[in-house]
Amino acid sequence: MTQLRSIFGYTMLTLLARVMSVVSVLLFARLLAQDVFGKYAFFQTSATLIVTLAGFNLQTPVAVVLARGVEGRKKIENSIIVFLLFITSLAVGAFSIIAAAVFFPHMNLVAQDYLWFVIFGVTNSMQIFVSAALIARGQRMTSALGILISSTAICVVLLLSHKIGLAEALARSGLCVAGGVAFAAFFLLRAGLCTNLSIVAEAVLRFLKKSGRKVLIFSINSFAANFIAQFGLWLLQRQLIVNAGPSESAIFALSSQFYNIVIFLPGIFGPLLLRDLINRPSYLDQYKAVCRSAVAVIAVCVIGMVTAHFMIPYLAFVLPQKYQIGEIPILLSVFAGILMFIKFPFSVFFQARISAAPEVGGSILFSAVIMVGLLTSLFVRSADLSLTLRVLAHSIQASCVIISFFAQSHFGRKSHGK
């Protein structure tokens, strides 16, 4: 009963944080001019890509390691976490400067815009890392509360703001996220740090010697999967700005909020399913648990699709009227989110077995579909066409992971005999 209350509380906090995050985007859209909001949305996508690249997706292997960890090692783990946070923050800052100078399209930006973009990226990378570590340790409520504090603070600040520009938007977002990170980091690191660096180094070397090769391969594969997928999405949004302008990018970003609403579910249940699968020693038990989760997910998706069909005309009224967003972009975004929701139980199965190869394959196909679509300017003439290309890419990506699961499970049950 205690565990059920914990899961329910975590679900509610995460749902509330997701709602506040979407509300903050809507507030940004109302406060900013349409073309400025399009630039802000592109900066958000760019920051996500840079965090993945510079951070080497370390939060995923760290989460796996901490989920398998034992009590009594928290000080050593905390010292390693602080070191990795410092290194990834420096890397994110450096990559942000390089990306803005070399790869961004011409958008008439000033130095202040770039400065706050760097700070925005660093604070978001810290939030992702700290949240993953908290969830892996079973501190789900604290992780969700830290994110909720950030998103709520952004909403409050925006409600008190008037006619802000791009730099002000990035500054408000970055500083509010920093507040949530400080709260979460306090609870993550309150056990203290191990100041004896030789002990920390010895623990790291012992771990690397025991299972480092497997985790390193998993880290590289999970990094590749995330980076390739994020790069495809970033390239799509970049070319949309170049070919159709920031205003169409703004429509793309606003419609994508409905995608974000749908995929909050994998963000909630993914870590819970991961811990459940790790605690199941039997291959067959893991297979059955994933299949049960997949059936439940499909049932939820069917209900969600039916509900969305009737609700979409009303959802359009939630968006700022100056963007004139119709039903088609919303429907496409919801469907893209459903595809990723269906994929998530199978993705968690491979994560529990420290295998990311199917995710890499799916991400490669995702980006390949987008790049093929970008060979002509057809899919970047409007937000609707870009969202259509995204749905097609997600369908191929999800199919790759699901087919890999059933193929591996067929041979896995034979080899394990369990």
What are the secondary-structure elements, in order, as H or E? HHHHHHHHHHHHHH
Share in helix:
over 70%
Summarize the biggest pleated sheet. Answer: none
Low-confidence stretches: none
Instruction: Estimate nothing, just give the exact number of structural domains.
Output: 2
The amount of beta strand, in percent, is: under 5%
Judged by helices, strands and strand pairing, the structural class is mainly alpha
Task: From the alpha carbons, calculate the radius of gyration and give it in angstroms.
Answer: 21 Å
Beta-strand segment tally: 0
What is the approximate shape?
A: globular
Treating each run of at least 4 consecutive H or I residues as one helix, how many helices?
14
Mean pLDDT equals: 84
Distance, first to last CA: 30 Å
Q: Could you characterize the architecture of this molecule?
A:
With 418 residues, the chain is an all-alpha fold. It folds into 2 domains: 1-195, no CATH class; 212-418, no CATH class. Helix content is 84%, strand content 0%. The chain contains 14 helices and no strands. Helix 1 (2-31) runs antiparallel to helix 10, helix 2 (34-55) packs across helix 9 (246-262) and helix 5 packs parallel to helix 7. The radius of gyration is 21 Å and the shape is globular.
